[in-house]
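Hi everyone,

Forwarding the result from last night's run.
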Amino acid sequence: MERAREHASTGELDSPAQRSEGAGTALELLVHGVGGTTPEEMLNDPRTVRITGDATAAVFRRADDADAEQRPEDYRGEPVREAYVWCNLTSGNGARALWLLLLPFMVVNLAHWMRPTTRGRKRVVRLYGLLVRLTGLTLTVLLVAAACEVALDLTAWQCAGTRACVKEHSWLGFLSPDVSGGGWWSQPGRRLALACLVPAALTGLLWYLSHRTWSAYESQQPMSRKAEPDEETGRTGLGRPGFWYGRRLVARLRAAHTAAGFLTVAAAVGTSAARYDRLSGGPAVLGVLGRLLDATLVVGAAVVLWVVCRRGRSENRLDQELDQTLVRWLPVGSIALLALTLVYAGWSRPDWHSTGRLPGDMTFGGIALVQGLLVIVLGVVARILYRARPDTRTAMRGLAGPAVAMLACALGGVMSGGVSQRVADWLDGTRESLPGPPVLLTWQASVIPPLLVVLAALVGWLARRSWQLRGREMETVELDYKGEPKDTARTRRIAGTRAMAALTDRAPRMVGVISSVTLLLGAGALAGALATEDTPGEAAQGAYAFVQGAAETAQALGSWLIGFGFILFVTWGRRAYKDPAARRTIGILWDVGTFWPRAAHPFAPPCYAERAVPDLTWRMATWIRATGGRLVLSGHSQGSVLAAAAAWQLKPSVRKRVALLTYGSPLERLYGRWFPAHFGPAALTSLHREVACWRNLYRLTDPIGGPVRLPGDCGPQVDREPLKDPLAYGRTERQPLPAPILGHSDYQADPAFADERERLLRRLRPDVPAPRARDDDGGVLESS
């Protein structure tokens, strides 16, 4: 009994004599892709039952197969099919579209996992992770600072202190000294103290969402086991026991980022009052309190930096500890400091009047400068890692992480500048009675039109390349369907689909160009903001007027584009969560981003794989232990990535009893190129050697899936020749109606799918000898 308990906790296989039921049964565990589906569609049967799981993610079978293990003789010729349905982890009601507002956080978290592959150089790897975490911290500060700009500076300081603005917005009347007749709230410090509740509430909401989504999506513990010896060599970290359970790190970062948010609000309120006390020569006690407040804010910022700089994830074991004191008291301490700041700012200062704008230029300029320096240093570190083990298939020669981090900073800057400018326009209208947002935010909004021009040029270049490639593909299509009656329109349509699918491979160049232009435009915006503060000489007045006019035009256009883009952004996000067709179009980018654990930013959207991977691991391990049968793990699109991650999490004795069938898989085409440290050639080669067997199917018309491209003898073993798409060129006896071009969908419709599944099942049978055997295509199938 004790031994049975031990096996149940570790997933170790019992001897064949102990498996009385289900011996010889084969199981095909289907994992769907990014578009999501229903168990009825996956199993091709209207009657399905849930075997295990809940309303969020579950395993289903046909109703007739529910007790298949008790009737193994009925399933000698075909496998029992199960469907793992996980689409509710990434879709649901339309309110989840608000997660798109956290896109900069998700993108910077993505950059953490894009580091180049390396062996050794642990200090450089840690430095890479530290730089990304610091970049993520600047994004949190930037978001809260932008909220402070809108609520404190534009609304409470500028508009409430201006008669013309309050006249148009009567709801601010109780804050205005002109309307309320010097009421209690009319003093600037008290107005700021009241308005700071908005950014403070935003920080609290981010903390709540991070905590709630962790409990709902990522709190599932993986199967407990010891680390394998080779996991220290760096082939991939996805197989480590603690990879899919980052509770300690997420809680630590959540505490630090929450504290950073509240400290930013406290600084926005307190430093303004402290500056007035120093300049006005008021009571000495207020001057002392102001200096103490500034010193406390510096100490708090140092503590936050220390927490973020501490070592990140612990993956070699299942780390269930929690830094209780740090996690609990760091946010509480920052809230207490904010409360003291509000009391200090609310102290009566009858002679204090709000003029101009709050000192936000230095804040936003400092954030932009720090972000630029972090990205540049991150690029140097990434290049050092890449040169240690160069791989031509790695996206952007190892610079993908810094480029994506730059895009995250650009998204944060553009959103901050655009929202601030739109609120300023709404409050002031055409009266020009308000100073408006800081100059840098205005310049950041002005970079949007030139960036769109660059995007339009890139789209034109891609269209030209696609047109050229379609011309070349037309000859290839005619050779693939040799002997068929020629149909120019049909050939052009097939060739065009192949050419459009090939555009995915040009994504690294697109990201590289956009990130480089963004860095240059950001530097130009910072320089323009600094130059605006200086008065030019008479000789430069003409040039200055021209540049200033062009900047104002671009700023006005960029401001409106931000508003339009925000509406379009949320609309598309809502549609992507509710419309399967839209999810197939844009969902792959979102699902790639939320596949990875939150290692760099705790406010990023939740990681669905921290629920899905343990689900699959537990299901495979317990079923094989209970039956001793054969198992084919069948994954489509993003499901193949989950399947590979789950296979890495299995114990070696269980992994050797699993065959892998992937189709429409982005394992190498997207993940191998963009995340080489975890899905590079070494990682995929080790997976191929450690599972029983593996076959991969793909089409040239598929924009997402592709070959695995394993080096040496592994290549022909895994990748089958590209499947024909469409299955028939014209009308035939078997296809009397025109066959559709399937692209990324419906791989099961191809007869090759059933052939490959049957071949994998034959390779898993106990009576198959160990030596190599050649398959029908001339490839080599290796037995483990």
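The chain has three domains: 2-90+608-781, 121-141+353-606, 188-219+239-351.

Cheers,
N.
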